[in-house]
Specification:
By secondary structure, the chain is mainly alpha-helical. The protein is 35% helix and 8% strand.
């Protein structure tokens, strides 16, 4: 499941891979059902979790195009605050149950992706 933030301004130096390369389990940051969100949330104009909008292209996390079970697609996006909070909770839950995170966190793909998502969404 891709999570993409708006690219940094030209000339910004970053040592981490872009968020669109993150691979997280689909249940790591569960989304509300497409039937339970407003039109603005389904179009990505408002945060899929808190409804804040309109979202600025300077501060948004694109959660990727999703298939709507009723047909068609929807385009959830989120504000950095909601992503940070959910990624932090997911990281805490994951790390407490993941043997690899306990042994050597850098080798756990899910833990590393959640850590990067927390860091990137705080910027």
């Amino acid at each position: 499941m891709p999570y993409r933030a708006v690219p940094p301004p030209p000339g910004t130096v970053t040592s981490e891979p872009p968020l669109d390369t993150l691979r997280l389990p689909s249940d790591a940051l569960p989304l509300p059902s497409p039937e339970d969100v407003t039109d603005g949330q389904s179009r990505g104009a408002s945060c899929v979790w808190c409804g804040h909008g309109p979202l600025s292209t300077d501060a948004v996390v694109d959660l990727g195009t999703r298939k709507n079970p009723l047909g068609g697609s929807w385009f959830p996006r989120a504000c950095p605050h909601c992503v940070t909070a959910r990624a932090h909770r997911a990281l805490s839950a994951h790390a407490s149950m993941c043997e690899q995170c306990v042994d050597e966190a850098a080798r756990c793909e899910t833990g590393s992706a959640l850590q990067q998502l927390v860091r990137e969404s705080r910027r």
